[in-house]
Structure formats: C-alpha cells, structure tokens
Amino acid sequence: MGKIVGSFFMPHPPVLLPEIGGKRERQIAATAKSADRIADEISKLEPDTIILSTPHAPCFRDFFYITRTKNLSGSFAAFGSPQLEFSFENDLPLAEDIIRQAERSGLPAGFLDHSTRERLAISEQLDHGAMVPLYFVWKKMRNFKLVLLSTPMMDSHQIFKFGQSIADAVTASDRRVVYLASGDLSHGLTEDAPAGLLEQGAQYDRRIKRIIETNDLDDLLKISQLEMQEAAECGTRSLVMMYGALDGCELESRVLSYEGPFGVGYLCASFRNLGRRESEYVQLARETIEVKVRENKTLVVPAWVPESFFHRRAGTFVSLKKKGRLRGCIGTIAATRKNIAEEIIQNAISAATQDPRFPPLNEIELGELEISVDVLGDAEPVATIKELDPQRYGVIVSSGFRRGLLLPALEGVDTVEQQLLIALEKADISPDEIYQIERFEVVRYV
User: Fold this and answer.
1) 99-126 burial, b for 16+ CB within 10 Å, e for fewer?
2) Is-contact 254 41, C-beta < 8 A?
3) Each residue of 69-90: pLDDT tens digit?
4) Which domains, ranges and CATH numbers included, belong to the chain?
5) Is the pTM of this model over 0.85?
6) Residue 224: closest CA among 281, 153, 280
7) Mean per-residue pLDDT for 172-197?
8) What is the pLDDT of residues 347-369, one digit of tens each?
9) How many Cα neighbours within 13 Å face the side chain of 338?
10) Beta pairing class for 394-399 and 380-381
11) Which long-range contacts (C-beta less than 8 Å, at least 24 apart) are formed by 346-350?
C-alpha cells in the first residue's frame, strides 16, 4: 500500500536561485533558507515519486490536465540561465491511476494527444512553477520519479475532490510519495508589485497563513474565485489540491517562512502526516450517535467543534455502514437548522435510530460503524439528463410534494438511468409522470 509520506507548499520566484537572482537573492533569504530546509526534509523521506502541482502548467476551466511525456524536462533559458536544466522520469503508471480514480469520481481528467497539444500550442516542458521547487530538491537528491499536475480554474470543491482521487491512487500503489504544492500568494503587496498595490493583498496572505497554521479546511474551501482574482494570487488551487490528497489525515503543519520583498507573497510550509483520522464532521456524527444510543440523549454541540461550523448552513447526509454494508442513511436536502453542527447532529440521530429500512442501532454495534458525512452544495435545475453524472452529481427528483434524493458516487450506481430510477422509487414517482430534476455536488468526509 502506498502512502503520502510528506507534503510541502513552496513559492516559485526564479530570483530565488542565485544563478538568476544575483544580489536580489539576499532580499528573500528567509525563503531560500526554507526552500533548502524543505529539500532536506524531502531527501530524508526518500520518496519514490514526487507529485507536483503547479499553477503555470497548461490550465483549463473544465479539465484536470496531467503531462504525459515519458521524461519531464525543462530549463531556465527564459530567465537567462540555459545551463540550469533538469529531466525527470514521469511516473506514468501512477499518473494513469490518478486519472482513473478521478474519472470514477466524475471528474474530467487526463492526458492530451499530440494533435490537441499542437492545436492548443501546449508545451510539455516543465514550467518555472515546477522548476524552482525542483531546483532545490535536485541539489539534495535525484533518484525519484515525477508526476506533474496543473491546477485548473475550477471550483475549490472539485479541486479538493481531485486531491482525494490522488490519495486513492497513491494508496492503491506501492509508492512512497511526497506531495509538493507550488504557488505564490498575492502579487499585490506593494505599489511596485506586479499587480500594483491591492487592498486585499496583505489581508489575503494573512488569511492563507492562518489557514495553514490551523489547517482550517472549511475556510480554505470558502475562498471564492473572485477573492483569488482580487488578491492576484496563484497558489490557492495548488494548496486546495494538496489538502484533498491529505483528506482524513492528522496533520502537523508548520509555516517555515513568509515574506514579500518584491510585492509578491512567498510562503513556505511543511505538513507532516501523523496518520489517518476521522474528519471533524465524522467525529461529531459518531459522538452524537454514541450519546444517543448509550444515554438516549441529544448531544449538545461540543466545545471542540470548530468555529466555522457555527457560521455555515447546508444540507447534510449521514451514512452508516457495518462490515461494508449499509446500516442507515438519513439527511436533509437543504439546511433545516441554524448551523451545520446542529444539522449533522440531527441527521446522525435519524440515521442511527429512524431509518425505516433498519432497526435502531444498539450499543454492541457502535464499535463496528463506518461513518461518512456528505455536505451538499446548492441544487440547480437540469434541462436534460446529459447534464447528469452519477459519479459527480447527486440528483433530486420532484413532482408536487413528492421528492426523492440520491447521493453521488454510490457503489453499484453507474449510469444516469439507474440513478434516476432509484431516486424516483424513493419519491414514489412513476417514470411515466412529469417530474423535475435537480443536481447537486457534495463534499464527502470520512
């Protein structure tokens, strides 16, 4: 079984390299020191493969692009240093499995054929977003393979799900993997910054720094495309993808340095994987169920629950399995409580005690439960079933007061037709009736 043994976030200014920056390198000495430290840590981890996500690889709005060439090569010729060139073997089997895992989750991902690359003028050379972090690693070790990922201009929840697909592919492999997320923060910290002085620039960087220090995934996923644009940053999507790959892991995160001498925020951070753990969403559901089954009481929201839970409302589903088989699943299509913590508590109790397909849980079963919590995105109407995908989207069917919902990515539900038939049956709606269809996305926590 493979494992992500270490993860790091690094900026990519070419001036960080003494061969390019010259005297300017002194102005970002803290970043250079942290980059060296990260490279040291990576070399000690002895990875078989480094997975590197970069915002400067070919980027699409609806597709996760992975570079296919057998050898991943590049140089700093564009920055006046053609002698600095590197080449790494592409870990194509792992890249192919990442694509398969993403497709199973309904995410558009893959390689591009030669004719498509030619038509779109896409180069498979390593970009500086990859080359700068790899420069430091190259000085410490060279016996590793590489997988190069782009960070598309997509919704953060989709990018996070793609990160989860990366984790699934790594687990199914035999690789020791390091994840290296490349990205700069705001390009608008000073008057002479590339984007000029932006009101949101320094504030945005403080927010990202706090998110990393506290591993506040909820706040990270709240950052909108507009906020990213207004801060003129290029690293958030890479960070989101990395957090997706680490979903369910106990993390010890450290901000090693932050500075912005050229008007661009450069942050270096390391993330130590302390092992798998249940997410806070699942911890809350489990504690709720244990209190209800053992004491027949409704849990009061515990003090440990993150503050972000109190500022968010959404529909949730709590699913229970025992020895791999469904043991209960109840949820709400839209928010019915004043915050997501209370929503999870209510639905956890319902899944454990009120699912009509199963008897209420007993205390003996508590130690055998596998729990997942789905947080639903907003539902949107569907004009044609071509807009559905049972791996990516859940469905809601309705006719009058009758409504039926089916979550996405369910085992055994492989086609749109299967998905609709099950949802219609749950709503007691005949396929011959006129009914409306809505779709929604979820983030699944385990």
Assistant:
1) bebbbebbbbbbbbeeeebeeeeeebbb
2) no
3) 999 999 998 888 889 899 999 9
4) 3-276 (3.40.830.10), 278-373 (3.30.700.20), 377-446 (3.30.1490.150)
5) no
6) 153
7) 94
8) 999 999 999 999 999 999 998 89
9) 2
10) unpaired
11) 347/285, 347/316, 347/317, 347/318, 348/284, 348/285, 348/286, 348/288, 348/289, 348/292, 348/318, 349/288, 349/289, 349/292, 349/298, 350/318
Task: Determine contact, residues 275/282, Cβ cutoff 8 Å.
Answer: no
| DSSP helix/strand/coil, 195 | coil
Query: How far is CA 158 from each of CA 63, 65, 105, 237, 274, rounded to the nearest angstrom?
Result: 10, 14, 10, 10, 25
Give the end-to-end CA distance of the chain in Å, rounded to a whole number: 19
> Do 122 and 57 contact (CB within 8 A), yes or no?
no
Q: Give the 3-state secondary structure of residue 326.
A: strand
Instruction: Return the residue matching tokens 């019915």.
Output: 336
**Residue 179 in tokens:** 């994840």
Distances (CA, A) of 118 to 113, 122, 139: 9, 6, 33
Compute, in degrees rounded to 10, the torsion defined by CA atoms 285, 318, 380, 311: -10
DSSP string, 254-299: EEEEEE-TTSS-EEEEEEEEEEE---HHHHHHHHHHHHHHHH--PP
**In this structure, are residues 382 and 398 in contact, taking their beta carbons and an 8 Å threshold?**
no
Q: At what angle do helices 236-245 and 201-214 cross, to 10 degrees?
A: 10
What does the alpha-carbon distance between residue 109 and residue 255 come to, in Å, rounded to a whole number? 31
- The token duo for 123 is 């180069």
Collect all residues with Cβ–Cβ distance below 8 Å to 330 and sequence separation of at least 6. 317, 318, 347, 350, 351, 354, 355
CA distances from 113 to 45, 74, 76 (A): 34, 20, 26
Pairing of strands 49-54, 145-150: parallel
Contact 52/59 with Cβ under 8 angstroms? no
128 alpha-carbon distance from chain centroid: 23
pLDDT in tens, 14-73: 999 989 988 777 889 999 999 999 999 999 999 999 999 999 999 898 999 999 899 999
d(CA 430, CA 437): 14
Query: Is 437 a residue whose pLDDT tops 90?
Result: yes
348: nearest Cα among 328, 362, 322, 366: 328
